[in-house]
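Materials and Methods. Structural model of Glutathione-dependent peroxiredoxin. The 167-residue sequence of Glutathione-dependent peroxiredoxin from Achromobacter aloeverae was retrieved and submitted for structure prediction as follows.
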Amino acid sequence: MTIKVGDKVPDGTLTEFIETATDSCALGPNAFQVADLVKGKKIAVFAVPGAFTPTCSAKHLPGYVENAAALKAKGIDEIWCVSVNDAFVMGAWGREQKTDGKVRMLADGSAIWTKALGLELDLNARGMGVRSQRYSMLLDDGVVKKLNVEAAGKFEVSDAATMLGQA
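The predicted structure was written out as tokens:
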């Protein structure tokens, strides 16, 4: 079953590579519960098939980095980039793309949360394993308010400009 507008997102664990240790977060990968992260917040989530891949690196992530201030001005508390990669890869990609303070780079390394959403993409035939479909969604206190799932191989509805118009 695929998640739809009006549904509450399933709980799950996402990991984030923390660059600077604090009292609450250690340096390196830290696990976070989705239910805790979404509570009382308005979040723009976008997912990509893979870190460092062409469309994701040239268009998808940069669009959200460039529009982060505009999205936050519209009441978005956080912007998440989710990918079926590990936290080390997501951290390295975030450093390269200068996402710090703009976009949280959240890893779903085993695609467990992605599968719970019903948004997995089987790329085994291309040697890439199970990945995420390309999508964006607007969450308000964990409830899906907008959901934009791309057709296979497309990048038309999950971009930052579309999200900006929906926020």
